[in-house]
TrEMBL record:
UniProt similarity note: Belongs to the pseudouridine synthase RluA family.
Listed GO biological process terms: enzyme-directed rRNA pseudouridine synthesis
InterPro entries: PsdUridine_synth_cat_dom_sf, PsdUridine_synth_RluA-like_CS, PsdUridine_synth_RsuA/RluA, RluA_PseudoU_synthase
Recorded GO MF terms: 21S rRNA pseudouridine(2819) synthase activity; RNA binding
Species in which this protein is naturally found: Armillaria gallica (Bulbous honey fungus)
Keyword check for Mitochondrion: yes
Keyword Mitochondrion recorded: yes
EC numbers on record: 5.4.99.43
The name this protein goes by in its record: 21S rRNA pseudouridine(2819) synthase
UniProt function note: Pseudouridylate synthase responsible for the pseudouridine-2819 formation in mitochondrial 21S rRNA. May modulate the efficiency or the fidelity of the mitochondrial translation machinery.
Principal EC category: isomerase
Subcellular location: Mitochondrion
GO annotation, cellular component aspect: mitochondrion
Amino acid sequence: MTRPGFAALVRKTRQSTGLLPRSDVLYIDKRVVVINKPPGLVSQASSKEDDQLKKFLCEIQTRHKLDGPLFPVHRLDKPTSGCLLLARSTDMARDLSRQFQQRKIDKQYFALVHSTPQALPGTSGVISQALQLRDGYVSKGQASDPACITGWELVASANKLSLLRLNLLTGHKHQIRFHLAKVLNAPILGERLYSQMAPIRCAPKDRLFLHSSYVAMERFKSAGPNKRYKLGIRSPMPPEFFKVCSHIGIDISPENRRGGVFIDDLPAEDMENMDGVWMPRDM
């Protein structure tokens, strides 16, 4: 649970080095933590990688003086960065798992892709393609398999690259990566599994340009006329994303550069009256 002086304590404890970047945690309240997952970290570990994930979560608990364990309730692919939701109790983990199953959690991503507006089938759309997983790779599923659904919207385009905003309406390993590369024919910059597109000079060769930019969940107030509300957390645009976009001439809005906390899709201007803490403001 957040406490008096918590934000000041955070400023003093961010100086150590380790797995966590400076913007390791985006938001904390008494029920959830939203971390800014770095690329390269697994979020649903196998036995081989379990120690790395445990060390990451342990460092978060220690650095931010959190009581009790943290429970991952969804996953991001290893090379994907951005918002990763953690529950602070088993009860909250069950509640969030229920919301994921009922599609009440909003999940938005940004992707830089190899495509031009002329090559896309419009400025927005929905990809509905069943997928199957075999030996760690995804391929098209059978007609009888449940559809995997990804909504997409063109944000901007320049120099044969486009910035897409994506809404993940179902969850399947490599869903966005496969849908964009094999269905939309717009592979993500840095994609190696499902595309052979050449890298560009201004982008790191080992970076997949897919970022979990926003996650929103259903919450309840203890008092007031409208007790049910949507709590949304937006991650700041990663520096390497911003650098490439600036280099090729794509403007990033201030909202997406900064990130922030949102209540029912509106910016939460007065964080002092909320139970949570937006961490990047104290960096």
